[in-house]
Amino acid sequence: MSLAGTLDIQHLSKSYPVKNGDLSVLEDVTLTIEPGEFVSIVGSSGCGKSTLLRLIVGLEEDYQGQVLLDGQRIVGTSLRRGIVFQEHRLFPWLTVENNIQLGLLNADLTPGQKRQAVREHIALVGLEGFEKSYPHQLSGGMAQRVAIARALVSKPEILLLDEPFGALDALTRAYLQQELHRIWQAEGITMILVTHDVEEAIYLGDKVVVMEPRPGRIRRIVPVDLAHPRERAATAFAEVKQEVLKEFSGDSASLAEPPLRTDAVDPDQIRQWQFAI
């Protein structure tokens, strides 16, 4: 089991320079995520959910406030923080086991220890028998499980998930939500999920952070005091869902937001980041 990390975000603000000044994307965001907690973040388009993930993963350092992991300011990417995107981003010329082993490229392990870690995480995501398969031989859900294994193989303290199931069909999505919950319990790490799916947020999260846009601020934190496994058709589940949805009753924007983009990042930084996860 991995050691979970405490994430402490203190009065975080972030802006980008534009033609006529600065565009404020996040404003005075304060949030503490306890070790081993599963936190879901929802919000309408433009509320800064993906920008928040960029800052937590360490892609950007130009901001006001503090982003601390176990009391230390986050600086740059690190094996301590894994990330999974909406697209699996597997290398098509590598097998399942070799794609997962990329997550250990910078790990201080012997070759034998790396092979053992890869085997353990292939088993964790239920892909035994597909070790030698290539991405084009996998379904979308299987490929995303490989991406999750790659992010977890370095045993990060925090796993960030940016719309990880957004491109999947409803049945596969529901199945992988159950699988993610099982993995979270098995690994014992902190997980942060960005999603536009309120039901998904409630099914997985210990609490749901509702953000409002322009600039992005925390509107409300809704606790999810429901035992696992959660029953989506239960009255208590519906009541929590209604609590979250009513926060958007005045918003005309969709809850959907494009996944975290990397096209504006320096290519060398992208390569470093890919190998860090």
Account of the protein in words:
32% of the residues lie in helices and 24% in strands. It has 277 residues and is of the alpha/beta class. The protein has one domain (7-91, 158-276): Rossmann fold, CATH 3.40.50. The strands form 2 sheets. It has a 6-stranded mixed beta sheet, sandwiched between helices. Mean pLDDT is 86; it is low at 252-277.
Question: Layout of helices and strands, plus pairs?
Answer:
Layout: E1 7-18, E2 21-33, E3 38-43, H1 49-57, E4 64-69, E5 72-73, E6 81-84, H2 96-101, H3 111-124, H4 140-152, E7 158-162, H5 170-187, E8 190-194, H6 198-204, E9 207-212, E10 217-223, H7 235-245, H8 267-276
Parallel strand pairs: 3-8, 3-9, 6-7, 7-8
Antiparallel strand pairs: 1-2, 1-4, 4-5, 9-10
- What is the typical, i.e. mean, pLDDT? 86
Task: Please tell me what the overall shape is.
Answer: globular
**Could you list the spans in which at least 5 consecutive residues all have pLDDT below 50?**
252-277
Main CATH class: Alpha Beta
CATH topology call: Rossmann fold
Count of DSSP strands: 10
Terminal CA distance: 18 Å
For the largest sheet, list the strands in their spatial order: 6-7-8-3-9-10
* CATH superfamily annotation: P-loop containing nucleotide triphosphate hydrolases
Task: Quickly give the structural class.
Answer: alpha/beta
Order of helices and strands: EEEHEEEHHHEHEHEEHH
Sheet having the most strands: 6 strands, mixed
What is the CA-based Rg, rounded?
18 Å
